[in-house]
Amino acid sequence: MPSLTSVKYSNKKVMRIVRIVAICVAVAAVLGFGIYYLLTSGVFYKKADTDAKSYELTEKMQAAVMESELQQGYMFSRSVKLLMEDRGMDPWVLSWYVIPGTTRSVPAMESAYVDTMDQVLLLESYVREGKKSNAEALMKAIDASLVNENGMLIAFAKADTLVTTDRTKEEYGELYENPAYLQIEEAPVSMAATTEYLEALLDYYDKWGSDKLLDRIKDLSAKVMEAGYTTSYRAADQLARPTPIPVTEKSLVTPVPEDEETEVEVVSLEGIELSAMNLEAMRRVSFLLPKYQEKYEEIVTIVKEGKISQELPLYAWMYTDGGYMYYTGSEANVELVSSLYVMIHLAEIGELDRDSYAWVAEQIYNNGFLYESYNIMSGTAGSDIEASEAYPLVLYLAKIKGDDDLFTATYSAMMRNYATLSTSPALYTFFRNVENSRIAVYARENLLMELLLK
Fold first, then answer.
1. Domain boundaries in the chain?
2. Percentage of residues in the chain with pLDDT exceeding 70?
3. Angle at 388 between CA 355 and CA 421, to 5 degrees
């Protein structure tokens, strides 16, 4: 029978061996994870140059944000919670959510649709944040559910067709839906979402590049650059008539009869939708694949020449065989948001018209509000509805230009609709005042602000 001393000695020896083995296992696990990370992160992969550019907030812009009530980190998480997690929509975000009123008779409402552009903006947010697993999951979901047989992204999808599991849903409210969604049974191609997706893939490639992804980019680039004319749609009133070029006389504007109801319908045209042309994505594609350089320059020319006039330096909706189509409604009103997307795309490649930028700045400085549309003849607001999506677009324009004054003034306007009430479901998000004094949180401006501030 061994002595007590020898047993203690043997136990110590065993424990020492166990500790050494545990340390070795831990080191091996760390090394294994490190090697896996390096192999999957693209560190050793020699990526092709996509000539990416970036813009930073100036010190004054950062100060304006820091001195405000904005809770940037919470803004994104609260938006995702309201529009994805609480709606049972992972990995998608719904278009909007209307918060409940103070009584049971005013219930919450949610959109029945997922807007494809919102999903692409969410993907870009994940890429910027370095959230590879989220980005990869969303990218696979987009490719599986929002890409048509020709490889182009569709404009929208019904939420219930994307999520098969049972989920608790609030009431649907068609009053707040995009009228075009309700009238188109089969979603059309969205060139805007497709070209934005192309840029998102380029950014993803720059961070986590692979040959497989590069092939995907080349394939989508070919579809975008060689697409030619595509169908685009826009909700307009019942008397909508596409406008010829040029529009110079008031007699060309069809008046609305006083006793005529102006129900909403959808206008569809074959052509190039100017705001859908992400020129920066196309520039990077032509840098990566020089065979598209001539096509890129052709598209830039078409977009630049779509400016309406010196007096109203907004941009046409479409370019067709018959020329530019400036507006679709009988009231001759030009949509602001689509023009702002054109301005951003031109600014990113250094081609923005000086008059257009000055016009936008004038609206902010003199009026402090941006509206959904402006009349092509008078230049005054053609709608009394505030264009919530416009403010983050103007902020991005100011960021590109390094314009501290315009950024600060626009940021103040944006913060008017930032929720700070601690008991509100919309807390820390940007909201819209919609009909019947309801408060709605839309994915669009919250995702745009998230990208802007990165």
1. 51-452
2. 85
3. 140
More confident residue, 202 or 434: 202
H/E/C letters for each residue in the chain? CCCHHHHHHHHHHHHHHHHHHHHHHHHHHHHHHHHHHHHHCCCCCCCCCCCCCCCCCCHHHHHHHHCCCCCHHHHHHHHHHHHHHCCCCCCCCCCEEECCCCCCCCCCEECCEEEHHHHHHHHHHHHHHCCHHHHHHHHHHHHHHCECCCCCEECEEEHHHHCCCCCCCCEECHHHCCHHHHHCCCCCECHHHHHHHHHHHHHHHHHHCCHHHHHHHHHHHHHHHCCCCEEEEEEEECCCCCCCCCCCCHHHCCCCCCCCCCCEEEEEEEEEEHHHCCHHHHHHHHHHCHHHHHHHHHHHHHHHCCECCCCCCCECCEEECCEEECCCCCCCEEEHHHHHHHHHHHHHCCCCCHHHHHHHHHHHHHHCCCECEEECCCCCECCCCECCCHHHHHHHHHHHHCCHHHHHHHHHHHHHHECCCCCCCCCCCECEEEHHHEEEEEHHHHHHHHHHCC
Return the residue matching tokens 């007699």: 251
Would you say 333 and 383 are in contact if contact means Cβ atoms under 8 Å apart? Answer: yes
pLDDT in tens, 45-102: 589 999 999 999 999 999 999 999 999 889 999 999 999 999 999 999 999 999 998 7
pLDDT in tens, 297-309: 999 999 999 999 9
pTM metric for this prediction: 0.86
* Other CB atoms within 10 A of residue 146 CB: 25
- Domain with residues 51-452, CATH architecture: Alpha/alpha barrel (1.50)
Q: Check if the beta carbon of residue 53 is closer than 8 Å to that of residue 349.
A: no
Residues 6+ apart with CB under 8 A from 299: 272, 277, 279, 282
